[in-house]
Amino acid sequence: MFRKKNIWIALFLSIGFVAHSQQINRAMDSTVTTYGKVVVKGKEVKYSATTGKQPVWDDKGNIIAGLFYTYYQRTGIKDVSKRPLVISFNGGPGSASVWMHIAYTGPKILKIDDEGYPVQPYGIKDNPNTILDVADIVFVNPVNTGYSRAIDEMDDKTKSETFFGVNQDIQYLATWINSFVTRNNRWTSPKFLIGESYGTPRVSGLSLELQNSHWMYLNGVILVSPTTLGIERGTVPGAANFLPYYAAAAWFHKKLPADLQSKDLVEVLPEVEEYTINELTPALSKGGFLSNSERRQVASKISRYSGLSVEVILEHNLRIPKAFFWKELLRDEGYNIGRLDSRYLGIDKEAAGTRPDYSAELTSWLHSFTPAINYYFKNHLNYVTDLKYNMFGPVRPWDRSNNTTGYDLRQAMAQNPYLNVLVQAGYYDGGTDYFNSKYNMWQMDPSGKLKDRMDWKGYRSGHMMYLRNEDLKTANDDLRDFIAKSIPSEGMPAKYNRTN
C-alpha cells in the first residue's frame, strides 16, 4: 500500500513538473514593461523597458518558438520616423544577448572594475555611455539562448533543421524582426543591426535577407569582433595574419625587444602589419622550398614581433598555432594568456603542453555576468520565470555550410546606397583577431567601390572591448558618430551618381 501510494505521488509530481515546464515554455507571447532613467553626457534620458517573448511562426501561422527580448525605448519622442532603432545580437552560436546588453550599449551595466574583472558584491549600475540617448535598442536572444525556447512538441531533429545553422538562423530571425518592427510601428525609423562575434555573420546575412525577402532596408551594420564571415582566407594568409595580434599580446605582456617595447602599441602594429603583408605572406607561400637562410631570417623576424623564441618558431615551420601561443608566451612565468582577451592570465596544472587548460577570460566573464543578468531581469525589469537563463544554450550541431554572409553584406550595400558598415575590434582578441577583421573588409569588396562606406575602429582590449571602462566610452561614442553619419539628410535620394 505504501509503495502504491509512493508511485501515485511520483506520477502526480512528474505530471506536475511536465505541466509546469509546458506552462513556462508556452508563454510565447507576453511582456512586462518597466520605466527608468539614466544620465548620458549630462542629460537625463527617460526610457521604457519592455521584456518578454515574441513568437516565431511557421508558414502555416503556428507558433514554433518564443524569442526572449528586451526593448529599450526613449520616452517623450513624438516622431519615431527620425529615431534610430538598433537591433542587437550576440554570437556563439548559442550565446545569449547578455554581453552587449549589460556591458556595452544598454542603460545598465554590470559592476566590474575599470579593466573588466569581477568584483563583489555583484550587481548592476547605470551606464552613462549608453547609446539610448540617440537610438532605441532591442536585444534579441535566438532559440535556446537566454529564455528563448522552441515549443515543447518540437523534436531535436526538427529544431536543428529549423533553427540551428547559418542560413536557418538568418531566415527565421529576419521574419521575427519583420514582426517586431511591424508590432512596434518602426518601419519608418532608420534601422541598424549590431552583432558581436558569431553575431557578425548573423547580422551580415540578415542585411541581405531583410532586403530581399522582407523589403526592409537598413542604414547601418556594426560588426563587433567579426568572424571570417565566410570569406576564404587560405592557408597562407590564415597563418600569417595572426602575427599582428601576437605582437599586440606580446607588447601588453612586455615580451617584445626594448626598441619596440618603448613605443606605443599603435606605433608598433603598423610595422608588423606591413611585414605580414609584404614579407611574411610571400615567404610562407614558398612553403618547404624556402631556403634555410630565408627560413631563419623569417623566424628571427617572427620572434622579434611575437616574443617567442626562434627555436620554437622553427620547430613549427614558421606557423605558430594560436592555442600554442597562448600557452607559450608566459610559460616560463607559469601562466597562460586568455584566448578572447589576452590581457587575462590563467594557471594550468602543468607548464608542459600545447594549449591552456581553460579560457581564463571566459571564466572571468561568466563569473561577473551570470549573477548580474539573473538579478537584473528579476529585480529591475520584473521578469519572473522558473526557466534557466542560458548564457550558452544547446544549439549543436550547427550547420555551417553555405556561409556567404560577408559577400551577402557586400551585396546588400551595393543594392542599398544608404547602407554603411562599422567594424569594431580589440587588439588583444585572439579568437577573432583584429588584423583579420581588416582583412575581411579588404576582401569583401574587391572592386574597392564600397570602401568609403566601411569604417574600422580598434581598441586596447579584447573580444568584448567595452569591458575596459576607457574603451566603453570610446566605443559607444564611435557608435554615436556612425549612427549620425549613416542617416542621410532629409530628402537625400538613395542613388548612385556617375562621376566623369
TrEMBL record:
Signal peptide interval: 1-21
Keywords in alphabetical order: Carboxypeptidase, Hydrolase, Protease, Signal
GO molecular function: serine-type carboxypeptidase activity
SUPFAM superfamilies according to UniProt: alpha/beta-Hydrolases (SSF53474)
Domain of life: Bacteria
GO biological process: proteolysis
UniProt key word DNA repair: no
InterPro entries: AB_hydrolase_fold (IPR029058), Peptidase_S10 (IPR001563)
Pfam family, one: Peptidase_S10
This protein's name: Carboxypeptidase
